[in-house]
Amino acid sequence: MISRPTRFVVPALLPILLVAIWWFASTGSTSIFFPPLSEILERFSELWLFTLVPEHVVPSLQSIFLGLGISIVLGISLGVLLGLNGYVATALNPVLQFLRYLPAVALLPLAIQLIGIGQDMRVTIIVLGALWPILLNTIDGVRSIPPSLVDVARSNRVRTVDWVFRIVIPSASPQIFAGVRASLAVSVILMFASELLGASRGIGYFILEAQRQFSLPEMWSGMIVLGIIGYALNVALMVIEHYALAWHRKSRA
User: Fold this and answer.
1) Alpha-carbon distance 148 to 79, whole Å?
2) How do residues 7-48 score in pLDDT, each as one tens digit?
3) Does residue 30 form part of some domain?
4) What is the total count of domains within the chain?
5) Cα→Cα distances 86→24, 144, 153, 165, 200, Å
6) Which residue of 82, 170, 184, 195 pairs with 199 in a disulfide if CB–CB is 3.0 to 4.6 A?
7) CATH number of residue 79's parent domain
8) pLDDT tens per residue, range 49-83
9) Which pTM does this prediction carry?
């Protein structure tokens, strides 16, 4: 059995190795496009530890949390309703699949025209992209509930509210969390894309402005911040999933 320290050390080996390779390979670099990692980290410590967090990081996180939160509420609610109504879900499936594969980034120009440049537009774009993984995974999770469980609930005359919140949603929760994890990645990508076109603050705006001014170390530092935020959010979601689905792991064991 793998020990607890090993679980943390082994996944960290590859990132440490890649950073070390980047550090030594970029040492002495004179390319304007690929500055030394030491210079990038120096800009990172100067800009991102305290100075630019309220101006750029906070608005980006607000967009992600609002867009993902709305997607979770709508996705689970509509997914449960459609999952419990098989005929309706089958009838709407072609439309849902069409909207699922319609890139939310393609709707950015329309969203800017209709909503304008601001956080409302960015949240809307995130919802339009992050909703579908949660919605479709919830539908599949609800429809995969064992028929024996349905029969037991009917024979015991379980109330509708108890049936939904104590049986349906918990049974579908593994697939729901899988959809949420996929939507989190989509949310970060769409946050960045929407800030490139329609924002005056945010990490995406900062990276674009640094690129336009040929401030390449600052641009690379913004990309590092974006990666750190995405990784931190993923770890936080994994921790929530670990505790929320503890009962599921025990039942399978």
Assistant:
1) 21
2) 667 677 888 888 889 888 888 888 888 889 999 999 898 888
3) no
4) 1
5) 58, 11, 18, 19, 45
6) 195
7) 1.10.3720.10
8) 878 888 889 999 999 999 999 999 999 999 999 98
9) 0.88
